[in-house]
Fold this sequence. Notes:
heterodimer; A: 251 residues; alpha/beta; 6-stranded mixed β-sheet; 4-stranded antiparallel β-sheet; 8 helices; 26% strand; B: 409 residues; alpha+beta; 2 domains; 6-stranded mixed beta barrel; two-stranded antiparallel ribbon; 57% helix; 18% strand; elongated
Amino acid sequence: MSGLLVELRAVVKTYRTGDVEVRALDRVDLGIAPGEFLAIMGPSGSGKSTLMNILGCLDRPSSGSYILDGVDVASLDADQRAGIRNAKIGFVFQSFNLLPRTSALENVELPLLYGESGLGARERLERSRAVLHRVGLDGREGHQPSQLSGGQQQRVAIARALVTEPAVLLADEPTGNLDSRTSEEILDIFRALNDGGRTVILITHDPDIARAGRRVVQIRDGRIVSDEPVAARRTSARAAALAARPASVPS
Amino acid sequence: MRAGLVRTGNILKVGLKTILRNTMRSSLTMLGIIIGVACVIAMVAVAGGASQSIQSSIASLGTNFIMIFPGAVTQSGARIFTGQSTLTPEDAAAIKPECPAVAYVSAGVRTAGQVIAGESNWGTAIYGADVDWPFIRAWNVAEGSFFTESDVKGAAKVCLLGSTVSESLFPDGDAVGHLVRIKNVPFRVLGVLDKKGGSMMGADQDDQVIAPYTTVMKRLMGTPRISLIQVAAVSPDRVQEAKEQIEALLRQRQRIPPGQDSNFMMRTQEEIASTAAQNTRTLSILLGSVAAISLLVGGIGIMNIMLVSVTERTREIGVRMAIGAKGRHILAQFLLEAVVLSVVGGAIGVLLGIAASALISELAGWPVRIGAGPVALAFGFAALVGVFFGLYPARKAARLDPIEALRYE
């Protein structure tokens, strides 16, 4: 085995619009090791959304292979992919996509209701509470999305993505709807999760946001045009402040 | 198995939450089903009540009652109603001596006319009967007395008033002994009949005047023929025997060759009851189907709202799919939503229908009867409507493409 968590080989995705065939992805090869923090960057129309849909098992490649966590997912049907998404992928969306009029805790619990875990109601709620705690939302369990700020909503969404302990966290422009300070907080959460060993894939059009990752893949016209580690990794102001502080108390 | 149960419970939870989240819309959607089910129950209750009252009024005819009508003649295979009565008073008179299973016989004629007493004027049915008539109908005289054999023989101008007629013409209750004019013929009022109430056809049986049939035939109608014969068998278990004896006698008297249909019809109380039961069943089915259509419309309302709901929640469906909901999860969620709406609506409709039936019975004075059968049927049908009309929107939701759904604004 390659030891890779995500392995795309010669992935092609074509769409037909009338008589015109559009090649959204053109023989993309990509490998992601466990524990990586990868940013996929590209302008709109570059194929990055298509790539994300395939990475997230929302879509199937027209040709090529995709091995996710040892499972060949390219040939799975819709229901099997739903199972894979539930078990191995945590989605974080630009517009949060929380269920309205549903408490934060219930939003977080949702993936567990569709899972094969067979957890009891009590265990589900315990786990949901624990992940909400992890993203710093203690005391907000009963709040509905409309009662939460954008940053808080995105934290709920991250908690929802984490609750099944997925192999990959897939974030599509997670800071796109947030102001710069809140964006920073959200990126901090991703960095902290990655530091804890979680594989994170961040999709963005913003080079500045992309530098939160350790490795940046640039995509243009359906092809990967560059793939390199981040030289000057972006750290948040808070992280910088923490780094500047004399290392006296271990956290 | 255990995990399967847990998952079913989870889907239930997801569906119920959605309904509770949209209280206003859910209740409006249910309204269609509520009205439909309530309609079915109220209609069937009214029809059931009508049927019950008809059955009891037929039962009041007595179990040994037989009615003979002139009529139906078969000629060359076609059944023809001639309109001309074939029965005569002599036919009626022959029955009692010739048929040992018969206890009472009363020849009858029917007409209608204005009854005038002083200043009062009342249009009513005039019925000519024989002296056995009160025994056959088990109908007693409240005041005064019934006419006698000699009144019948002499075609005496005497009569008895039904209680409605008596109340109209003699509000003071002093009818007995007075003269009334029927078609300009003066009649002496011998008595007033007991109150009997509505007939099986809904007519007021107390709105009639009874006179000797001879008098009605000669003085009011000028016809030598009678329009029916009412008979009582000696006991309920000899009704069939009496019927056969009468039939043989009348065929002989009418000179009907064997193999040809009789020119008269006979109906026992049992046969009248079963015909009426058939009629009321038709009524029940008619009312029930009208109500069922409203239930169907309620179902279409559910489908409509579910379709709107699927469109409106496309993005939510996309999110659910992204986080691992399979097609069947989405299908189950929407189907369950539709079924819960229709079942809860059905339950409320049952209560409302029972209340409406009680109200109808109270206000209109109609008898109503609520059976467990129609209630269960309406409720079950409502649930079925939910499944049927929920299936299409639910399938539509389940077949959404998660990528498209997530992109939906």
